[in-house]
Write a structure and sequence with these properties.
α2 packs across α3. The chain contains six helices and two strands, in the order βαααααβα. It has one domain: Orthogonal Bundle (434 Repressor (Amino-terminal Domain)), CATH 1.10.260.40. The relative contact order is 0.23. It has a two-stranded antiparallel ribbon. By secondary structure, it is mostly helical.
Length: about 90
Amino acid sequence: MSSFITRMKAYRERLSMTQNELAEKVGVRRETISRLEKGQYNPSLKLAIDISSELNATVEELFIFTDSQQSSNGSDDLNDIKQEFP
């Protein structure tokens, strides 16, 4: 089973941007941004590109899909990513 990890919040906060501001710029509701940041919603390709453009990052930097079957419990992947980008 794949897990979805996002770095959106860290990138957004680096730009001192609120969820509402980002939502307005990419044409979605603030709740969508919140769910994306929590990894509860997978963005469409267009939305991922729009968000990455607004956050001055690549899609690959912001959105990471991991295969939790490759690691023993899936948390190692998340911990590695969090250490790489606090």
